[in-house]
Write a structure and sequence with these properties.
Length: 759
């Protein structure tokens, strides 16, 4: 590939080899070959697929002569990358678009390979192979450590032409110490073959850069996981050298391979094989991010590297430098992390004292600022989703939500629970129930993801990629249990989870609002911030916590509300139809009595057809009252003063603030005094008997299918009672049932009378 050609390799990051079929995999290889790339490029990309077989790419590569080569071009790779989220730089963004599976994370980028100037390496003028070998061994090994090296090699030939394709190393030697080799090399008078063995100058020689146990040359024979090999043969040597130095890699020895690459022996200083693997993965990731296409087949700690001091096909394998870059792994690792930690530098308070920055504007006045996070917590049936839809509409229209004024803006509602038709209908129903004209529905976007959800750490980059240009003021995620990752009771796992909301808020500059459920058990005695299920991180992470607790409504309160509804509609009807009667016949006391207003209604509107629409309206409104539930909204705010509890009604499909004050006097269950709890818990004997009879009737009805009798044991299991005796007591108290020999049956009216007399 020419230096100024469009680079296809970064596009491969958008194509997961594990997700493509065989033909697509072949097409990618053909496209790379057509555009002048190497088999190694195809092989490196293919290695993340579990179907990967070592050497298969190289074998296939040689067969790409006809078979579509020429018709399959780089456009194939471009199209596949576009289908997975890649966009060309001309699309308007300076930085690359996030791919499907990108995580918002440090990019570890230190250098730009397209702008860095190459640094030439210089072949030694007075080359002394013996001194080079000794210096290399002294740099990498302790005198007592065994060194593995290979001078013997064998040619691999082409089956058809018989020509030598390349030279391959044998297992080599591994049973001599560094001290012994240095001693013998110092006395050999330049005859390195007498110490290390003769070699083929077409092939060169190799060395294993980690010490061995003297029993073999495999990974299990490595005694100290000290070094890793970084090598790339897909870019000019001078650029490799420049990037190695710019990255400040802790290189113990840098060797020219005698061909197309520099072999950097990098200090990783791992204490175990597991740690070695992790550090090498990190090292390779940083190198890849900075333009070095690393040969990932060099991961093994027992890997062979080029041995300086030998000739390879007419070129010297020589030592370029030793001990360059950072002194050790820890120093280099900390340097990379510090460069990429994305953290601001500390600042002095005095610098801003007289010129304070503007606070983020309020999105929900007195509750939430733009760019901050809010959690709505509550039990099931609280209508949390409806509350979030109401909030979406309030922000879109710039209206009030639960009494709080919202600033107008754009909203993304991430729907994880409802199917698409239900979600759309629900928005329309709530709009209409709120009595708002849909003047700004273009401010609301809905992302329907039911059945397509992924964990939040995977969803966050996808969400950001789709939203980066939409200028949303709020992103609402409903509900979070669908994207929850980890154990919700684990503080560290939940901290990682909630950090994803920070990433969304920071990247998009918008508020992130989400809902979560309460823990089990009574919530009345808890503070609002302690009611959400799981780790306390949930409650302490958001800038605003809005909590919903249900209020217990008694019959008197419901009756009071239905009377008020009736009175209000009667009043409006009489005012509309017979204003003169209203002004002369109705007193202030009458306005508070549903029975009195009903009489006035009948008198003032004698025509039954005239009364019917009002009676229908009363029936509708009374039903709404009966099904309505009462709720108390409490909160914990980071940016604003604590607000007084807000009492509201939820009557499908909307919430409305209680402006009557009837809910304000209701105490939460656990806040009631003990005498009141005891009084309310006591039931009359008649009420207990009625409940037991109803349970028995329900159980019998559910179990009796008309073909087989119902047994006492079945009733006991259905009602989850402790003993058969308990079932018999239920039956004894019920006049409509009897039991004989363990069989339960219903009895006739005459039998009921007989049973009463016997009892």
């Amino acid at each position: 590939m020419a230096e100024n050609d469009f680079d296809l390799l970064p596009l491969l990051d958008y194509i997961n080899p594990a997700m493509v079929d065989y033909q697509t995999w072949i097409n990618v290889g053909m496209a790379l070959k057509q555009e002048g790339y190497t088999a190694m490029d195809w092989d490196n990309w293919s290695q993340s697929d579990t179907r990967y077989k070592k050497g298969e790419c190289f074998a296939k590569w040689d067969t790409f002569q006809g078979n579509g080569l020429g018709t399959v071009t780089g456009a194939t790779i471009t199209q596949l990358a576009k289908e997975n989220g890649w966009q060309p730089a001309s699309s308007g963004r300076d930085s690359h678009e996030l791919s499907w599976d990108d995580e918002i994370d440090r990019d570890y980028k230190v250098v730009d390979k397209d702008w860095i100037e190459g640094q030439e390496i210089h072949e030694p003028i007075n080359w002394n192979p013996t001194h080079e070998i000794i210096k290399y061994i002294e740099t990498l090994f302790e005198a007592s450590e065994n060194v593995g090296y290979v001078t013997e090699s064998w040619p691999k030939t082409n089956d058809e032409t018989g020509e030598i394709e390349k030279w391959l190393p044998t297992k080599g030697a591994y049973d001599r110490t560094a001290g012994k080799l240095i001693e013998e090399l110092s006395k050999c008078n330049g005859d390195i073959g007498s110490v290390l063995g003769d070699y083929h100058e077409e092939a060169g020689a190799w060395i294993r850069f980690n010490p061995l146990d003297g029993k073999g040359a495999k990974n299990e024979n490595v005694t100290d996981f000290r070094y890793s090999l970084v090598e790339s043969d897909s870019m000019p040597v001078d650029k490799q050298y420049a990037i190695y130095k710019e990255l400040d890699l802790p290189i113990a020895a840098l060797v020219y391979s005698g061909n197309k690459s520099l072999h950097a022996i990098v200090k990783v200083d791992a204490g175990s094989y597991e740690e070695y693997r992790k550090r090498v993965d990190y090292l390779y990731k940083v190198c890849q991010k900075n333009g070095i296409i690393v040969d990932t087949q060099n991961r093994n700690p027992s890997r062979l590297s080029r041995f300086p001091g030998f000739i390879r096909n007419g070129q010297k394998q020589f030592l370029v430098d030793t001990n360059i870059g950072k002194a050790n792994w820890e120093e280099w690792y900390q340097w990379i992390e510090d460069l990429n930690d994305d953290l601001p530098d500390p600042e002095g308070l005095a610098d801003s004292w007289d010129d304070m920055p503007d606070l983020a504007p309020e999105l929900i006045h007195g509750v939430l600022r733009q760019g901050h996070k809010m959690l709505i917590a509550g039990p099931s049936k609280a209508g949390k989703s409806f509350a979030l839809i109401e909030m979406s509409i309030a922000i879109a229209e710039g209206s009030k939500w639960l009494g709080w004024q919202c600033e107008k803006g754009r909203v993304l509602y991430v729907n994880l629970e409802l199917d698409r038709p239900s979600a759309l209908h629900r928005f329309k129903d709530v709009y209409q129930a709120m009595g708002l004209a849909a003047n700004n529905i273009s401010n609301i976007d809905i992302w329907n993801l039911r059945g397509k959800t992924v964990p939040m750490d995977k969803l966050a980059p996808k969400l950001i990629r789709r939203s980066i240009k939409k200028n949303y003021t709020a992103v609402i995620i409903d509900p979070i249990y669908k994207v929850l990752t980890g154990d919700e009771n684990s503080a560290d796992q939940m901290a990682h989870f909630t950090n994803q909301f920070d990433k969304v808020a920071t990247e998009l500059g918008c508020s992130v609002i989400y809902c979560h459920h309460h823990s089990k058990g009574s919530q009345g005695g808890k503070k609002s911030m302690d009611r959400a299920s799981g780790s306390g991180v949930f409650a302490r992470d958001p800038d605003a916590l809005i909590d919903l607790v249900e209020l217990e409504l008694n019959d008197d309160l419901i009756k009071q509300r239905t009377n008020k509804v009736r009175c209000q509609i009667f009043k409006c009807a009489i005012q509309e139809r017979n204003l003169d009667y209203y002004q002369h016949e109705i007193t202030l006391d009458d306005l508070e009595s549903a029975s009195q207003m009903s009489k006035h209604f009948d008198t003032a509107l004698p025509d039954i057809l005239t009364r019917k629409p009002y009676l229908d309206e009363i029936a509708t409104e009374v039903e709404k009252v009966k099904i309505a539930t009462g709720w108390r909204v409490e909160g914990t705010l980071r940016e604003f003063a604590k607000f007084n509890p807000v009492n509201m009604w939820f009557s499908y499909p909307v919430h409305s603030v209680d402006d009557t004050g009837v809910l304000a006097d209701i105490q939460l269950e656990d806040n009631k005094p003990l005498w009141q709890k005891a009084k309310e818990s006591r039931k009359s004997k008649e009420q207990n008997l009625k409940e037991r009879n109803q349970k028995l009737e329900t159980a019998y009805s559910a179990l009796f299918d008309g073909s087989a009798p119902v047994t006492v044991q079945e009733i006991r299991e259905y009602l989850d009672l402790k003993s058969n005796k308990s079932v018999e007591n239920y039956i004894k108290e019920h006049d409509g049932f009897d039991v004989k020999k363990g069989i339960v049956f219903q009895i006739s009216a005459n039998q009921e009378t007989e049973k009463k007399e016997n009892n």
